[in-house]
Write a structure and sequence with these properties.
This protein is α+β, with helices and mostly antiparallel strands. It has 2 domains: 138 residues, PurM-like, N-terminal domain (60s Ribosomal Protein L30, Chain: A); 147 residues, Phosphoribosyl-aminoimidazole Synthetase, Chain A, domain 2, CATH 3.90.650.10. It is built from 9 helices and 13 strands. The strands form 3 sheets. It has a 7-stranded mixed β-sheet, sandwiched between helices. Strands 3-6-4-5 form a 4-stranded mixed β-sheet, with helices on one face. Strand 12 and strand 13 form a beta hairpin. Helix 2 runs parallel beside helix 5. The two termini are 34 Å apart.
Length: 321
């Protein structure tokens, strides 16, 4: 968990920082040897399970600012990866963290980031088993490599959607920059319940916006197109407030489709399952919305239907636009 090029800061040297961070890391029953050696040693998945593996990164200036509290930065870094694992109906088990630090970093802020990660990891049962600290010539960043499990053959993929499927989303969309992008709860329990009780054809987490992430499902599933119903979109109150805040604000519907970092689930099911799914969800998760927002079809492209008819949709957020 060390890189000799790590810059010093204040009165704390590299190894003192690492030792302080190690003391924060939670473990679970899968850990044979945790942080402190050249590698962690983990027990293999039990019979009837497959391994999931995911990596995700947050970068200062892209995913958070220099003013974002350290605890929220650390929590977000881990929760983003957990949200991807939820989208496959998996269970996260252990993670390693790569931390890139610029010159003049604050040890106290770094420790706060690890506290935020550790608190969230303990909440969802993840062991933090080590990682790497290194110098960053630019912005501060954290990368999470996350392991998890899923029952054999039960991972929900992007590639199983079918023409005619109903499209559902959990929660609300848009306006995540007002705080939701830091405080969201990955839909782990909900996703596993969905996979256990219904034939979910395809599922993805909403990190880049509904317009973009539903396109990923269409492409992976080789489904020609789909239609989203504007009046059905579950728009977050923050998005509606921003839409009324000035001439440069996005319309609320556009925000719900493109803002990104909602970290909700979008899933597709056969139309025959739609009513049963809504009834079962309402009984199991009465405080969380589940909304049918559209359907997949044979018309090439993704379209939005509103009171003026159909209009083609572009994509959601993309890092390299």
């Amino acid at each position: 968990m060390a890189d000799v090029s790590l810059p010093l800061s204040g009165r704390m040297n590299e190894f003192q920082l690492i030792n302080r961070l190690k003391s924060l890391l939670p473990i679970n029953d899968s850990v044979v040897v945790g942080a402190g050696d050249d590698c962690a040693v983990l027990a293999p998945p039990t019979a009837g399970q497959q391994q999931l593996f995911k990596t995700d990164a947050v970068v200062e200036g892209v995913h958070f600012t220099a003013e974002t509290p350290g605890e929220k930065v650390g929590r977000k870094a881990l929760a983003r990866a957990v949200s991807d694992m939820a989208a496959m109906a998996g269970t996260p088990t252990s993670a390693v963290i790569t931390l890139g630090l610029p010159a003049g970093f604050s040890p106290e802020r770094v420790e706060a980031m690890y506290r935020g990660m550790a608190q969230f990891a303990s909440q969802v049962g993840i062991a933090l088993v080590g990682g790497e600290t290194t110098r960053s010539p630019g912005a501060l960043f954290l990368n999470v490599a996350l392991l998890g499990t899923v029952p054999t053959g039960r991972a929900v993929l992007r590639s199983g959607a079918k023409v005619g499927d109903a499209v559902f989303v959990t929660g609300e969309l848009g306006g995540s920059i007002e705080g939701h992008h830091l405080d969201f709860e990955p839909r782990l329990t909900e996703a596993r319940w969905l996979a256990e009780h219904f034939d979910i054809h395809a599922m993805i987490d909403l990190s880049d916006g509904l317009a973009g992430d539903l396109q990923h499902i269409l492409q992976a599933s080789q489904v020609p197109g789909g239609e989203i119903l504007a009046p059905a979109l579950p728009i977050r109150h923050a998005a509606r407030l921003r839409a009324r805040s000035g001439d440069m604000a996005k319309p609320a519907v556009v925000a719900a489709l493109t803002d990104g970092e909602d970290f909700e689930l979008v899933l597709t099911v056969a139309p025959a399952d739609a009513v049963r799914l809504l009834d079962g969800w309402k009984a199991r998760f009465p405080e969380t919305r589940l909304t049918c927002v559209g359907r997949l079809n044979n018309r090439p492209g993704l379209f939005l239907r509103d009171e003026r008819g159909l209009k083609p949709l572009g994509h959601g957020f993309q890092h390299f636009d």
